[in-house]
Amino acid sequence: MILVVGAGVVGLACARALAARGRDVCVLESQPRPGMAGSTHNSGVIHAGLYYPAGSLKARLCVEGRDRLYAYCAAAGVPHVRCGKLVVARAGEDAALDIVERQARANGARIERADAAFVAAREPHVSAAGAALWSPDTGWVDAHALVRALAADVERLGGAFLPGTPMIDASPLPGGGLRVATPREHIDAEMVVNAGGLFADEVSRRCGGASFRIYPCRGEYAELAPRARGLVRGLVYPVPDASGHGLGVHLTRTLDGEVWVGPTIRYQDDKTDYEGDRLPIEAFLEPTRALLPGVTLGDLRAGGTGIRAKLHPPAERFADFLIQRDTENAHLIQAAGIDSPGLTSCLAIGEDVAELCR
């Protein structure tokens, strides 16, 4: 039996891919329902593959996962839209926009130059002082519905799901594999898949796997008030943050018509603190007005928050996904450090992990 630790979209996609291959699968989840952490605390954007270093797992799995996700959502009835995305440069940012364009083309993502007339036609209220790019394959998915669909697939394919069941410890079995302790029982597994999200470093340690650190990075959102939602028609992004830690505070219109503004970026020590010391709504005004000059403070209200599971500290700019058979324990498969574009990549990650479990 293969035990998957973590029932976010990555863990569920791994379990689904394994169960589809006829493997006996059980999914542990510490929360009462699947997908309650990072999987549903993000922008819900289906990324096209514009930003990630060529040859990285993030680049490959984003492009592959994007196509898999669109096909899956269409077949499973998961609400989604391939709405496209504008990446808008402010004055003086054209060179940085050129870098995004070159990276996108290197990754095989479709990208087009957009002039002022194109921007005005797509997003008449968006400022386009500099150049812009158009990504036709970027979209949005209802992450909650995606989680429900994946969980239903796992159960339909014969997989077991244990909600409210944290992993406490693990020990090696004499014949190979791991005995995993939960508050109620011990589970013997020939293989453990570590899809523990923010707690993947702790799962690895308990399994006798390689040592690494997950750095919690909080992202906060504001929302446009109902009267201002008509200012945005789709997805609008700035040029990525110079720190390399995120894609910048952007505008996301959902299928329900809500418009989210964010996320911000702040590293923190606590993996569970979503609400403490939140930014005032005033902090969102300037980054919002950089894209939507007509917005006033009264057009903004507080939104949700999320915490990214990053594999690199604030002083570094990039870390790839960690998807491999563990270097210390051959019975452990790592699917860790899955920050953006993890939602987009989840089905492709699941296929890679299923292959590693052969």
Task: Report on this structure.
This protein has eight helices and 21 strands. With 358 residues, it is α+β, with helices and mostly antiparallel strands.
Short summary of the structure?
This protein has 358 residues and is of the alpha+beta class. It is 27% helix and 25% strand.
Mean pLDDT: 96
Helix content: 25-40%
Secondary-structure element series: EHEEHEEHEHEEHEEEEEHEEEEEHEEEH
The CATH superfamily of the largest domain appears as: FAD/NAD(P)-binding domain
Which key terms come to mind for this protein?
six-stranded mixed β-sheet; 2 domains; 358 residues; alpha+beta; FAD/NAD(P)-binding domain; elongated; D-Amino Acid Oxidase, Chain A, domain 2
Topology:
Elements: E1 2-5, H1 9-20, E2 25-28, E3 45-46, H2 57-76, E4 80-81, E5 85-88, H3 94-106, E6 112-114, H4 116-122, E7 132-135, E8 139-141, H5 143-156, E9 160-162, E10 169-172, E11 178-181, E12 186-189, E13 191-194, H6 200-206, E14 215-224, E15 235-238, E16 250-253, E17 259-262, E18 266-267, H7 285-291, E19 300-310, E20 322-325, E21 332-336, H8 342-356
Parallel strand pairs: 1-2, 1-13, 2-9, 5-15, 13-21
Antiparallel strand pairs: 3-8, 4-8, 5-7, 6-7, 10-11, 11-12, 14-17, 14-18, 14-19, 15-16, 16-17, 20-21
Helix pairs in contact: 1-5, 1-8, 2-8
